[in-house]
Batch of 2 targets.
Target 1
Amino acid sequence: MLRSVFTVGGWTMASRVLGFARDMLIAAWLGAGPVADAFFVALKLPNLFRRLFGEGAFNAAFVPAFAGSYAVDGARKAQALANSLAGLMTIWLSALVILGIVFMPQVLFVLAPGFVGEAVRFPLAVELTRITFPYLLFICLAALVSGVLNGMDRFGAAAAAPVLFNLMAMGALVGLTPYVATPGHALAWGVAASGVAQLAMLLIAVRQAGMAINPLSRPRLTPDVLGVLRRMVPGLVGAGVTQLNLAIDIVIASLLPAGAVSYLYYADRVAQLPLGVIGAAVGTALLPLLARQLRTGLPLSAHRSQNRAIELSLAFALPAAFAMAVAAQPIISVLFERGAFGAAATAATTAALVAYALGLPAFVLVKTLTPGFFARGDTATPVKVGLFVVALNLALNLALTPFLGHAGIALATAVAAWVNVLVLGRLLMRRRRLVLDRRLLRAVPRLLGAAAVMSALLLALEAALFPTVGAWRYSGLALLVAAGLVAYFGAAQLLGGMDLREALRMLRRRRA
């Protein structure tokens, strides 16, 4: 599991770094104005469906079924399952894309009601979303192929695919802008093209792995296929609860003054770095591992894997959350404050980032806990929890936004995520599917102590180094990052929260 986490996390880190480069370009060219708001809505809509139908509900039902079939029944039967589902996905997602393009004004009337009636944002958002919406079809098929590769313990290509998204978006922004109406149009075309490129790359990778997948296969409704579809329906809510929360955020943010959607986007992009590198990596590696261990009669191994996944998640999520909350202003200033993105936008985005940071450990833990349900074929329980959390998030949004503005939306998402963790964890423990072992219970308070030591140092350094202007901002932030890393890992080692020597031994074994 740890080797897989390192592979997925390494490629995800590369993708996130390129994503920051992309967002820095977007901030400089578009700022936080109407064109930026319209593009971010156009980007969020296909991504919402992708995370629900592709990476969320579908993966929650498909990956355990494929991994179990591959381990017990062999490659031929697992391939037949994947091809039938690929054919089904091509048919119904193609229909969804066509309907979405035709009825896009009505869709955005629901998802971005604050844009309705505006002379610029609404028609521009409709036009840009029509360009980006076909990305949904290609990236959901790419998620299926990624699930096949992950089920075969081949994580590299699937984790590397998002790198193409960032490269093509940046290339389109720089290369196409002179030839289209706005920079938002250039970005939208780059997004659509990147979906085709990612799917093509993954199809080549899975063929090289000996498991050819054909998205145009004739679907066969076998009992295994029907089983995946049955588990997928409740998983639309259970695995996608975070994305449903984000959809609510878009609706409410669109009702706020211009710039609110953009502030939340930029803050979310920073929060997504540790969430993607830690949460997605651990969840991606844990789900097929738990499914195989449970399918082959190794419940004690599954218990240990779940505990180590939680420990690893917290070991990196806690310092990331503390550091983002303490150093939010320097982070946003260095990453985005240039060109059309001014000091006022930095202050507004900083407030949102602090709120998101409060929920970061919860966002990561949700990714670690849900495989405990999905690996056992239980997609119904997260549905019930998810419905409650979505309702709670909506209520908190309505309660906090009048007082905190866009930062209230981020804070509501964070609080809802913690409630999600508490309920999911309690249910797993009540069913004896999660028993926190002594190693985990010993490590968590020590990791919290190490994160507190790091935060105290960062506060002192930030007061001395900032406000810093010009190029000195970059060196100041670099010093904060370096000092935070040394302080956290040094304190964690001294307090006994982690054993760096054990990690080094694992890395040596991996190289060997």
Target 2
Amino acid sequence: MAEIFSYRESDPNSLLPTWGALRTHGLFWQPGWNLPALLDEWEPRLTGLDDPDTAAIVTLPSHETGDTLTLINRGFAPLTVVAERKAGRDTPRRPSDVEVRPATHADLDAVLEINMHTVRYDAAFGMVTERPDTAVHLRASLAGVLDRDHEVMWLAVRDGTPIGMIYVDMPEDAVWVERYTDARPFAYLGHLGVRPDARGTGAGSALVAHAHDVLDRAGVAATLLHHALPNPRSTPFWYSHGYRPRWTLWARRPALRTSSGVSS
């Protein structure tokens, strides 16, 4: 049942371990499948007893709630959501005094700083982990985004100072999330970040409105993103901007706990 169960060990010398545990066991569930039976089959395969750098992730449609108690009783918590916005869905535009402009390589230091603020904030919610070399790998990744031959990253600037940024993966760069949507073509919103002292001022809304305009004009049918469900800012923000939950990632970290009653 390789299409249901997965295991990934991330390269420790890469950006991937920032976004989750170094070693991740996955179970991708579909409606009609017997989740308790699948969990019984899957649990003995898990490794990493009490290892904080392991995780067990169960992914299921957000509106499938029949087995919620099964997951809770086995120590899982809903930590991450894959949300989707359909093209043309109207969203509120808050008044803002920021200018939105394309980011360039000259802005890389500011872009990295804004991203690192987000990494450190999201680390409180159980999935993101700042590593010793996160900033180095994140800088290289952002430089790669800026190298693309089409405009996909923008800054919110106030009084000449960048206070927020957003970037998107257009359809040619978003293939890695195709399992989460039936819409074609689709894009992925890779990051929205606003400096802590500028949050709540409308900068994020201005950036999202600009990105949505670009995506709608490009004929993108749906845009996906990940957000941390326990984050008190991101959940209401994204749903007020037209996104709806499609998939929920239930996580247990470590993958196996002595006290969980599931280790052998």
